[in-house]
Amino acid sequence: LECADARPVTASFWAGRQRTHAWEWTLIREAAQLGGLLAKHGAPLQGARSLAEAVERYAEKAFLVDQAHRRFEQRRVALLEPRLPHFGALQDVVGLLRRRYRAWSDQLARDFTALCREHGFLPPPELRQRGIWDEVVHPLAAGLQTTAVFLVDALRYEMAEELAGELRRERGIGAVASAGITLTARLAELPTVTAVGMNALAPVSERGRLAPVITNGSFAGFRAGEVTVRRPADRAKAMGARTTGKTPLLLDLKEVCETDPVALARKVKGARLVVVASREIDDAGEASVGLSTFEQTLRQLRSAIFLLEGTGVRRFVVTADHGFLLLDETTAVRKYGTKRDPDRRYVLAAERREEAGMAAVALSELGYEGAEGFLLFQEDTALFDTPVAGASFVHGGNSLPERVIPVLVVSDGRGASSFEVEWRLEATALPEVLGLSCVRLSVTPAPGSLAFAERPDVSLALRVPGRDDVEVLLRDVRGAGSLNGGRVVVRSEGEGVEVFFSLQGPSDEKTRVEVFHPDGLVRVPPASPDGWFAVGRARTAVATPEKERRATVRHASWELGIEDEGHRRLLAHLSEHGSVTEAEAVRLLGSPRAFRR
């Protein structure tokens, strides 16, 4: 770690000249940080005497190991390539760290399971997920000021801690203090799946007990009186009925981030309660692309909070239904009956089964009314053998990374966004470097703006307009800037920054990119560098049927750069069919003369 810290890209001649050297030192730094934390926090629950103490120890220090592991795996996806001088040795390091992390995770899970056996799987009331609405959200939202509640599927505690740190750092700029941001931990309901945890976040608890709906052997939601809560609209309706007397404004995360601030303000106007739903983390993990998108989702959450603050929202609660475990070749898989009997991390069984390596708990012991049966869990992080394959993460079990959920409260914010502060963004396409696309970015205060007096840097991000299926992977930066949380932080006093990135999508093609300010803190009009950038076929992409492929080609972003309508139709036809006859060309271009020309 000392060697890596001594070789930052800005200070080391060779690391700055040879990008592969810089990438290797980045990987070494992340690996050393993970290895050091594994050694420092070898047995976090040793001597713990209650579930409350276990949660406190995890939320205080042990989460750092899970956070370092995720960050290391994220950098591995972005930087570990065969072109690196020590690729083989670095692969050995990855394998070694994965084995050590798996051993640490398994021991942590076994220690927590032992505490659950001794003290019960249902934690004390102050740690229960089912109490979050009445004990945290309702007191905030019952006032006159607008409150926004973020229900983020699979937001692990360590990710919320990273988000809270970003918010505190942003508020620490200038005279605005970092007060008003608190992060606490609770334990998710069992099993840690969306149908249970997300619906338990609504006010469905009666006298501390829940009435689950189980359909065809699967959890589907909860009954609250004569109402069944199982979908986002059901949750929003129950929340509004409990707190404000009317259904709240229900938005999704992408809608908040991509709506014009003025239009967003019109939507929010008059709403006392705003519910923002996000499935990005869970969807990405199930599709095996989570590691390359987690930072982007954290960036979107941060941006959405700032954007809603600009509309007048003053209080925020960010929470989750469950966490997750990352999967790799060290994950054990064990058989239970047929492959269709278990879920990946639990079994819903009619009878209690005491087997080595498994723990059983009756549904009645979890405070579930009207439900019979038992939940069976692996003591460690192993999976049950099921037909499901290809996901990069898993949840449903009783381990701390799956069960510890965040309750992040943000209040007394900075007020409206500084839209009177405007920056001018310049983006220039540069030649590829080591097979990576490259753009040069610089920001300067717009004429007449005093932007430089308010903040010394601006965060930027890249996207492909209109193409949600094309993912931008930020690899490296060179110059007056840095990578931070899936964003490029550009220093205004510098000469700009070169950004190295790659694009992954469903097929090999070329596309335009757009550079934009993702946080909504200041006004930065987006910019598109001239040029086309290569899209590589994602390794996890599944070939689409011919009809779907043609529909994708019809909306390819390269068409937007062709001004002549006839030329655009003709080239789109070629892209779709691979050939064109003279008669078709005449029809597409409008006349024989246009075809001859």
Written description of the protein model:
- The chain has 597 residues and is an alpha+beta fold.
- The N and C termini lie far apart (64 Å).
- The model is unreliable at 173-177, 415-419 and 540-555 (pLDDT under 50).
> Which structural class do the helices and strands define?
alpha+beta
Quote the distance from N terminus to C terminus: 64 Å
- The helix fraction, in percent, is 25-40%
Tell me the quaternary state: single chain
How many helical elements?
A: 19
Please tell me the overall pLDDT. 87
What is the global morphology?
globular
Uncertain runs: 173-177, 415-419, 540-555
Q: How many extended strands?
A: 27
Tell me about the largest β-sheet. Answer: 7 strands, mixed
Radius of gyration using CA atoms only: 26 Å
Our estimate of the beta-strand percent is 15-25%
Summarize the structure.
This protein is α+β, with helices and mostly antiparallel strands and 597 residues long.
Topology:
Blueprint: H1 2-5, H2 13-17, H3 19-40, H4 51-79, H5 87-119, H6 132-141, E1 147-152, H7 157-171, E2 181-187, H8 194-200, E3 211-215, E4 218-224, E5 227-229, H9 232-243, E6 249-252, H10 253-258, H11 261-268, E7 273-278, H12 280-286, H13 294-310, E8 315-320, E9 325-326, E10 333-334, E11 346-349, E12 358-362, E13 374-378, E14 383-384, E15 393-394, H14 400-403, E16 404-411, E17 418-433, E18 436-445, H15 451-454, E19 457-463, E20 471-479, E21 481-484, E22 487-491, E23 497-505, E24 509-511, E25 514-516, E26 522-523, E27 533-537, H16 546-554, H17 565-577, H18 582-589, H19 592-596
Parallel strand pairs: 1-7, 1-8, 6-7, 10-14, 17-26, 23-27
Antiparallel strand pairs: 2-16, 3-4, 4-5, 8-16, 9-15, 11-13, 12-13, 17-18, 18-23, 19-22, 19-25, 20-23, 21-22, 24-27
Helix pairs in contact: 3-4, 3-5, 4-5, 7-13, 17-18
